[in-house]
Amino acid sequence: MTAVLVLLGLALEALLVAAIFAAARNERLRLASLLKAAPDPGALKEALAALPEAEQQIAGRLVEAAQGKGSIDEVLVQAVVVSTTETFAPRLPLRILSAAGLVSMAFAPMIYGALQAAGGIAETAELTRRAHKAAAYVEWQTRLEGPFSALRDACRGTGLLLVGLALLSALAWWLRRPEVREARFVRALLLLASRLRPGQQLPVGARLAELIAPDRGLGRPIVASVLWVASCTLGWMFLQQTAEVRAANGHQPTFDVWPGEQRRPITPGPDLTLPKAPAGAPLDERSRPTLEIGKESVRLQQVPLAELSSGALPDPWEPEFEGQRALLNQYSRPLEVNLLADENATWATVKTVLSRLVTTLEVQRYYLVVDRRVRFGTKEAHLQGALPLQLGHPDRAPALRLVVSPQGVAIGNEPSINFGRPEWPLTLRERLRREPGLIEEDRGPLELEILPGSSYRTIVSVLTAADSACLGQSDCGLPGQGFSFVIRP
Known about the structure:
Elements: H1 2-36, H2 41-49, H3 53-67, H4 73-85, H5 92-127, H6 133-143, H7 145-176, H8 178-196, H9 203-212, H10 219-241, H11 243-249, E1 290-293, E2 297-300, E3 303-307, H12 322-328, E4 335-341, H13 347-361, E5 363-376, E6 379-391, E7 400-404, E8 408-411, E9 417-418, H14 424-433, E10 446-450, H15 456-467, E11 485-487
Parallel strand pairs: 1-4, 4-5, 6-11, 7-10, 10-11
Antiparallel strand pairs: 1-2, 2-3, 5-6, 7-8, 8-9
């Protein structure tokens, strides 16, 4: 629609340019025909009839006086004076309506774009009224990009139409402004008088015409050019001063929202490398015990639970947990545990350990700790985030089911998103955004169905891709959309 409005505006301006040239040409032809017909009374009468009514009366009186025997100098003076009082411009109501119409035409694309953007804002505000904060942010960022891009294009269209309107005004000022038309008509009267009475001196009329002739010098155009250059220079200086802001707007936003003392509250063991992910909220290690699953051992609050062989638990593995029970008594119930697992840990080992702690120590929820690397300007922050995961039957009905396999992830019964495609995290995030009810604050958890052969790194990648509030692949620093995840036994 914006393109249609711009094209219609350009077409109207092109028609007005043609109309201005045609009107100026017709006026010159009428006056030239009047002068050419001066020796022939019949042709002169036809030429007078072709003039506008006001000009016809003025020129007609001059012709009648010239056809008599008296001096026409006095009649010429009166004709010149009357010409200066005659309004060569259109009537005031017509000028007001024309100006209003042209301004409305020029600003129509921008007005339409602003209305569309306002509609997008109202629609997004209603959609995110009960949304989780991070989910609301994602919706605002993604939904408003289109309307505001259209608004930017609409403003460019309005700018283009305003440039055309300025050129149109300059052309009208050059060819059709009242002073020019008046000077053209007065000159025609002088030439007509000289041709009707060849050889007669017209000192008063000629002198008066010189005195009242409008200024057609270069003074005002030069002043206007200087002001235009000065305005362009000031605009360029403003753009130079705001260059850094505009450059920052051209990059994906990042947010320093982590509490300073909680950026990396837990130090992993030497045999443990946390998976890297662009999601996860800040965690407080003082409120929860820590479970570590490294390359060589499993530890709860630094107390060994098992030694691992090639990432696998001993068979059989029957831990007593007597020492750990006393350590866990200081933590409030229901019990929640921070999980630090090596990025190359097998899901079979991780699930076995988590399930044993659920049944033996009544752990209610785990927080999967991930490594986050966020760039703030020229600096890089090294953070830790946590993703909530529950094993067992959830307290609330799941909002959605994700099926994770070694090859990909599927939402319910939809086609699987293949892990072999680099953009799969963005695809998963976009599909989840289209699911009704997922942006609401009181939504249920996302249920995971883990198929055999899936790795712990793959599962963490799925969780972070679903939870991330960043718009691109890089880590923007937002905590996440606040999803909780559940795996049924």
